[in-house]
Amino acid sequence: MSIIEKVFGASPFKPLLEHAKKVNECVGLIRPLMKALTEEDYREIRNLQDQVSKLEYEADSIKHAIRENIPRRYFLPVDRADLARYLRMQDRIADSVEDFAVILIIRNTRIHPDFINEFIDYSEHIISLSNSLMSAAQEMVNLAETSFGGEEARKVLDMINGLGEGEWKADRMQREISIHIYEKEEDLDPVTILFYEKILMTLSQIANAVENTGDILRMMIVKEG
Questions:
Q1: pLDDT digits (tens, 9 = 90+) for 40-70
Q2: Alpha carbon of 62 to those of 14, 18, 44, 66, 204: distances in Å?
Q3: pLDDT digits 0-9 by tens, 87-145
Q4: Can you say whether the dihedral through the CA atoms of 46, 47, 52, 55 is positive or negative?
Q5: Which domains are present in the chain?
Q6: Nearest by Cα to 194 from 101, 96, 116, 103
Q7: What is the mean pLDDT of residues 27-34?
Q8: Residue 189 burial (10 A CB sphere; 0-12, 13-18, 19+)
Q9: Which of 32, 99, 133, 212 has its CA at a distance of 20 to 30 angstroms from the CA of residue 90?
């Protein structure tokens, strides 16, 4: 530990990055979950739900450690309240992935063959959004070293500027799938339609949380830059 860390406490930005990695691991499990769902492998869904729950717990543990160990005297380049909002919203991504996994274990829902490609494409888009946020989060430590300004800040802004458009595309994809579902409602029972909507809604919540996390990071850069 350096003399500065001994006097002012350890920086929270490396733990924030570890939290981001754990959250992104959660999101990565959407792919095998969706694969198991479309293949009607409900035992695998339960195994994967356990993995999501474990990762979400680990993310929570990192979150609590960050909250408890940010020293009041540490010279932060951003406002503590903004940092807390960023952490809270980033954690919401993992929470929403867990919600998605829980929806899948509540009922052995069969995805109609006509919808399989749409559900897979939608889930892949959500994963892509999370990966884009992860790329920005990996620059957090470098941002702290430049006081959230300069060329590093512009680089991160470029990374997160596409998240809003990506979330808009996710909303559009969700609407199109819903329209397709109700076009075939005569072939589906009401409970299956309900679970389709729950699946889509939890994936939408992940996309919203990703965009909002990026927005908070953008705000910190703009405020401090």
A1: 999 999 999 999 999 999 999 999 988 887 6
A2: 11, 8, 27, 6, 25
A3: 999 999 999 999 999 999 999 999 999 999 999 999 999 999 999 999 999 888 788 77
A4: positive
A5: 3-224 (1.20.58.220)
A6: 103
A7: 98
A8: exposed
A9: 32
Q: What six digits make up the tokens of 165?
A: 């458009």
